Amino acid sequence: MRYAxxxxxxxxxxxxxxxxxxxxxxxxxLSLFVFxxxxxxxxxxxxxxxxxxxxxxxxxxxRTTARDSNVFVIVHEKxxxxxxxxxxxxxxxxxxxxxxxxxxxGKGAVFAYLVLEEPSEGKNGNKNFVKNTLGVRKFPSxxxxxxxxxxxxxxxxxxxxLEGGDSLEMSDVETFIEDKVGFRLGNDVFxxxxxxxxxxxxxxxxDTAPWSSDRLKQRILQLLxxxxxxxxxxEPFSSIGKLYNRAFSMSLANGMDYSENQxxxxxxxxxxxxxxxSDEKIHEFQQKISILKSFEEPKExxxxxxxxxxxxxxxxFGLAIATILLIILPxxxxxxxxxxxxxxxxxxxxxxxxxxxxxxxxx
Length: 363
Fold this sequence. Notes:
Blueprint: E1 2-3, H1 9-34, E2 39-42, E3 54-55, H2 59-65, E4 71-76, H3 82-93, H4 96-104, E5 110-115, H5 127-133, E6 141-145, E7 159-162, H6 170-181, E8 189-192, H7 193-204, H8 213-231, H9 237-254, H10 258-273, H11 279-296, H12 303-328, H13 332-343, E9 346-347, H14 352-362
Parallel strand pairs: 3-5, 4-5
Antiparallel strand pairs: 1-9, 2-8, 4-6, 6-7
């Protein structure tokens, strides 16, 4: 008795094909993250009045402030207040809910500024303290002092410095602040440039018939934005993406003039009730208006904008096809198990030659 061996070349081919599909999916997903649209901010003029930067002068001021609270300090020279004004103004514009929420989570900070003072007649100044104790060499510089300091604490145990100077971008400073205090400064209204480009192309087709080719193109653009939103879970991209998705859906349902009508309605309500609404609600209104305006007043797309739309559409289409193929094709372990079951059937080998001889002899 022996076992029959079935050819498994097709199994190896399927396994290689499945491996290639998995590699393709990984490359597409990586590409989607690389080309993922980013949310850009436009400053809002609405300011919350109860948050201010305080001035600290010396060792005692910082230690006292850092006893119960984290402290973020902007250290700058007397004639250079640009960084201080920028950060303090954005602090004042930060939503109360965001500011207090970070403090409740054990983060947050008191924001302060320290002006470098040279020793002069009758004054010791703070230059030695700034350079020797705090270790600041370039101006402006930015310090994060963790809470829990007392008169015996070493600054080296509580201090994190982002060395400044002219080469440092303010966006890097704001990222450093967000990392340390747990919230992003400002009450910015965000937009996603890529989604604005898609909205512009979407609106250019106008009001379309339900089964027309232009309506199909609009549906594809709508799905592109929806899939792009799924790829990223980071804020503010995720929440802003939901507002774009709603604007696309409502425009298809109610016509291309939906955004214009909504902007007028929201702006009128905001103007009438601005003094009654909370700062969070005002920010919500401003954010919705900003996104709806990308449909009401669409930007003029460039060749690069259209190229980006095509790249994203191709990547998402490729990801969808590859995912379907992965679902259809069986896994390698399933194929192996099936092959083992087939090969486990015993096949009895017959001696054909012997039977022939015995038959011939008997005849």
